[in-house]
């Protein structure tokens, strides 16, 4: 079986619809065909200002949500990144193979650091894509299901894998990004040209998996639409309606042209009402299962420990080879 790896940051109290459609739904589906490794990437979450107790809570909530959406601990390896020390270790080695200029071109760093200002921006945020490359390469992943915003980081991962292999001998699989186009970029409901994001969307612009039904419905009904009344997908002129059509199409598994004809002659309100219902139908069972899982923290932590054991076994093997190839003296 080909191997798949992906990660998600515990940077909020809930994952959102963009995470779900852009990545997590694929994580669940890929379990059927792939040997799957999924991690809650807490090392990445400390690249921006945070509170330690909040991080610990969010890490558990993140894991619970992943089990709740259908990641099966019997079939997949789900773990917390900091439980496997090799991530940080490999990141150091790869960092020494990454050019400063090369890292400086990462647009996500440029965006996030511009928002924070240079004095608040950590070196960790700058080297984040190198750590991400380590996450992937440690497990020899063939495919990495992510949203469009990760394409550039994936390209860097591929470059680093090839560079390492060329310099030190064949060691890493060169992974491919797996980015289904229809849901690759879900946008903010209030700002339909910006991506929906845990850290930068306003509460009104984001649909959280763990939101209550009332607020979810309200946010969908108040989503920014465009001038005119026609319900058609048109990225250029109607980014708001296009985003809603994309979301509804994915949730209802109905092609966009079918939706366009179904809603022809009706106002935006009709589409929004049905979309709100589809969102609730998807999110409610996830929220309920998450709450149940969080009620037994010991059981949840045990599942994560098992995942970490399985992940460590693979990571250790890769790292042993890396240490040897790069010329570190083996410990007697
Ligand atoms: P942050 O704002 O803290 O970076 P995020 O919302 O971008 O949070 P991540 O944990 O960075 O979430 O990313 C998890 C996964 O979700 C990644 O695969 C990412 O590509 C995907 N993703 C994030 N936002 C979207 C979106 N709006 N549309 C589609 N996929 C998305
Ligand atoms: Mg992100």
Note down, in words, how this protein is organized:
GO terms for molecular function: ligase activity. It is an enzyme of class 6 (ligase). ATP binds at residues 9-11, 18-19, 147-149, 186, 195-199. Its main location: cytoplasm. Keywords: Aminoacyl-tRNA synthetase, ATP-binding, Cytoplasm, Ligase, Nucleotide-binding, Protein biosynthesis. This protein is mainly alpha-helical and 332 residues long. The protein is 55% helix and 7% strand. The chain contains 13 helices and 5 strands. The chain has helices at 17-30, 42-45, 52-69, 86-95, 100-104, 107-116, 123-138, 151-168, 213-221, 239-252, 256-262, 268-294, 297-326; strands at residues 3-8, 35-40, 77-80, 143-145, 176-178. The strands form 2 sheets. It has a 3-stranded parallel sheet. A two-stranded parallel sheet has the order 4-5. Helix 3 (52-69) crosses helix 12 (268-294) and helix 10 (239-252) packs across helix 12. The longest helix is centred in the C-terminal third of the chain and has 30 residues, at 297-326. The protein is globular, with a radius of gyration of 21 Å. The model has no long low-confidence stretch (mean pLDDT 97). The site of adenosine-5'-triphosphate (ATP) has 20 residues, from helix 1.
């Amino acid at each position: 079986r080909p191997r798949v790896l992906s990660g998600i940051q515990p940077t909020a109290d809930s994952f959102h619809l963009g995470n779900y459609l852009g990545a997590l739904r694929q994580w669940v589906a890929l379990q059927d065909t792939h040997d799957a490794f999924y991690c809650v990437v807490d090392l990445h979450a400390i690249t921006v200002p945070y509170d330690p107790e909040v991080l610990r809570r969010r890490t558990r909530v993140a894991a619970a949500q992943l089990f709740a959406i259908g990641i099966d601990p019997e079939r997949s390896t789900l773990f917390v990144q900091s439980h496997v020390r090799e991530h940080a270790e490999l990141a150091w080695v790869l960092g020494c193979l990454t050019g400063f200029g090369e890292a400086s071109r990462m647009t996500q760093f440029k965006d996030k650091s511009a928002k924070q200002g240079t004095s608040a921006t950590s070196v960790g945020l700058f080297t984040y894509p190198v750590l991400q490359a380590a996450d992937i390469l440690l497990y020899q992943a063939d495919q990495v299901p992510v949203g469009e915003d990760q394409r550039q980081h994936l390209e860097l991962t591929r470059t680093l894998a090839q560079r390492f292999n060329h310099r030190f001998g064949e060691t890493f699989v060169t992974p491919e990004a797996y980015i289904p186009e229809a849901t690759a970029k879900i946008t903010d409901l209030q700002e339909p040209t910006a991506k929906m994001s845990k850290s930068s969307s306003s509460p009104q612009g984001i649909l959280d998996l763990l939101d209550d039904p009332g607020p979810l419905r309200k946010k969908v009904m108040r989503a920014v639409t465009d001038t005119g009344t026609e319900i058609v997908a048109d990225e250029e002129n109607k980014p708001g309606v296009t985003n809603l059509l994309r979301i509804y199409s994915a949730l209802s598994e109905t092609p966009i042209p079918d939706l366009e004809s179904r809603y022809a002659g009706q106002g935006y309100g009709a589409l929004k009402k049905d979309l709100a219902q589809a969102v609730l139908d998807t999110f409610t069972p996830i929220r309920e299962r998450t709450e149940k899982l969080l009620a037994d923290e010991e059981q949840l932590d045990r599942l994560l420990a098992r995942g970490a054991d399985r992940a460590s076994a693979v990571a250790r093997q890769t790292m042993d080879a890396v240490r040897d190839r790069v010329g570190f003296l083996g410990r007697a």
